[in-house]
Amino acid sequence: MSLSLWLTLAYFLVLIPLCLRARAASQSDEAEDHYLANRSLGFFVLFFTLYATAFSGNTLVGYSGQTYLHGFHWVLTVGLWAAIAASFHFLVPKLRPLSVQHKFVTPGDWIRFRFQKDRTVLLLRKLLAICLCLTMANFLFAQLKAAGEIMEVITDGAISYTLGVLVFALVILIYDSIGGLRAVAWTDVFQGLTMFTGSVFLIVWIVENSGGFTALGNSVSQLRPETVAVPDSSMQIRWLSTMLLGALSVVVYPQTLQRVFASSNTSTLNKSIGALGVIGLFTNLVVLLVGWCAISLFAHTEVSNVDQVLPMLLEQWASSSLLNGFAASVVLLAILAAIMSTADSVLLSLVSMLRHDIPDHSQRQGLRQDYVIAVLVMVAITLCALNRNITLWRLIVIKLELLVQCFPAFVITLHLQKIRSGAVLCGLITGVVFLLTAISLGIKNLWGVNTGLIALAANLTVLALVSVFQSKFSTPHHSKHRL
Amino acid sequence: MSLSSFIQRLFMKNKTLRTALQLLMFFLLIISVPWYRPPGTEPKFYLGMPDWVALALTCYALVIFINLLLWLRKDEQGKPTR
Q: Where in the cell is it found (chain A) (predicted)?
């Protein structure tokens, strides 16, 4: 698939002028300009940057692999998206006006504002930032891993996994550092359009190749008969808990929060989030159909790594004709675009939190330290990504399990004004300790329920108990601000 | 009157309707999982898919449609800030 390589190179070249233009449009070296594009994102850019950021390499590569494994049962992935789309109603309508009024730049700014008079605000902000940074690092790691896997497959090993990871890391680091969110958002428009075009090509081919939806469904029924009947209770619990985990965790993604802050106005943001739900549903359906199509395509082929199902399918598609070769290359480009657009946003958010949410005080002018942090972070995560012995789905789950522990600090405290930082901090510590213990013991679920959700239940229980205790025995808020 | 302005007026006037639609979304998500059917039941097929899969996909499409309607309403909690 040398055409894919040429398209990939051309794609990298297109990013250069976009990146330079974004740099030229930059108005200052302030954090607000670098991380939020001076709160100037209109509908078109915001919609595509939300789309391109929400759909990562994990989604396209990891989910199609899981659908291949689990057949009809993996319809839960569409449910996961529907639950995520619905969950934004908990957060955006209340957080957006506050973020504009108080000029939030990072997620930590909400904590600074919400608990400004509490003694433990600093500790809470730092611990939350560490949790979010670990989540983001995991996410970035998964994107680099997905990029390496794809490059190796499409070049038949000519570009090794290691080289693929290194090249992607370097390209992302360069345009992320030069152009900030403006470059990321502008490239996301291009990447989002590529993803959508690729999805359309893919769905047309799948329907054509499989002989229609009914024939596709019939072949899945024949080859995965164990997934046809109504699933058992453990699968149903997994289904419900996956939707709940997604809904409560994705809503507090730092890169999504920062796009909520960066929108040019509230109406634009609302329209973008509504439209995101629709295009996300379409993309998830495409991923589902890819997995089902792969079941019949690879019925007699041994698939050692399910994360390579989609690249293998593309290879087969490309070899069928010259036109299909071009279409498959566009889809491949779409996957690489999904990986890059998520990775760049994650890197930007990660650096912004390391720079502004972990130190006691943050200086919002000058970007020299930000560049150094970006390089160090990218080097560390690239080295980690050279380890291939973990599936993308497992990475997604670990990420969501940790992220969901931050849900009370961002969403529950947004709605319940009496909660204080001490209660949130105790809950967070409980949830994280519970989760880390479960991960280290290799426990993925209890009674079918994801351990991340059980850790969240422990987190919320402690939060409630400490809140009751505080309201009965403690004095009113201190007057001194503790930012 | 355009469709979007009609939707906006409808939602502005009726807060109960918005709340009802939000609850409907969560109800649809809950019933998309076939917990109310005995496990192992042999399903009927629609478009080659078992009925419980077709029902789940229909529920998710409805959730996304309701979600779109809710976001398209004019934000009445705060004036556009910029």
A: Cell membrane
